[in-house]
């Protein structure tokens, strides 16, 4: 029997949820034992009543096979609780997700230093700027930035990690076939190409409000620490921080404007001693110096010491008379920011170093299909390397 099909069968049965699976495994041993169990074997198991028994006695695998085919069609894959590659941090949850639907790379989850960055959907310019700076520096130092791909702070966190040329992980509150919010379709594609998006909700599950607290527990459990940027005292962001504290994870919070509701959650965490105040990436990195020092990172991902940045006051973009025009230096393909690109992306960069180019010319130059070129350019846009101009023209950001 195909174990994955059996897990998909179990986790898509009516009345069967994660908290009920633990007692089944304790009594019946493994997923094969659960599938083969007769009615008498199911009786007397904690939390398993008549409704659950009726579901478990339905051995039809057609729904499981349909989901498996759907996942394959999406270019995604399934991670099961008893897989060797299942994230160890989630395995030790009280009610772990026994099936994870993943769109993206097959990563070594236990060989990374994941830090979650969460915050308000209705974020301020200050919150977005601080998130961008901290996440970029964390990613450059070897940290894997984790978030929920929501509007506001979450989206900035993912984009900043991608801009740093690093991998990022998103936990979703809906099915893997649904992009929520819809405007993050491009971001979802980029995360799948350079990291992973995952969910415990089966394909087709809408982004119901009740799903997000469930999603938040995975963000907290998967990560070594959680950084909170802008949060109301009672909010989904605050619930993620509380999940982290309950599970013994490090919590960090960025101070904000004392007059704003979105600062009260962070300030409460700091004042209560639940969170360490974080003004820059170094405030977080210093907690993990040993871990980063023992990680197998490429040279470009070696830990860096990040100094606190002075944020200059805004000034007019209009050049003064005393300012002189500075000739921009032509970039080289050997620049460090291009080091982690694949060969196709480097071919695109080589062309754009010489001149701006239409997407059709890019396809011909890099020997890519339109879809492949679009995917590569999307990721490079998120990394801050290129900009799309009118008429499908792309230019290199110098």
Automatic annotation (TrEMBL):
Region (Disordered): 309-333
Span of domain DprA winged helix: 339-392
InterPro entries cross-referenced by the UniProt entry: DprA, DprA_WH, DrpA_SLOG, WH-like_DNA-bd_sf
Sequence ranges assigned to domain Smf/DprA SLOG in this UniProt record: 78-288
GO biological process, one term: DNA-mediated transformation
Signal peptide: none
Gene3D superfamilies the UniProt entry points to: 3.40.50.450, Winged helix-like DNA-binding domain superfamily/Winged helix DNA-binding domain
Family assignment from sequence similarity: Belongs to the DprA/Smf family.
Name of this protein: DNA-protecting protein DprA
Organism in which the protein naturally occurs: Candidatus Aphodoplasma excrementigallinarum
Classification of source organism: Bacteria, Bacillati, Bacillota, Clostridia, Eubacteriales
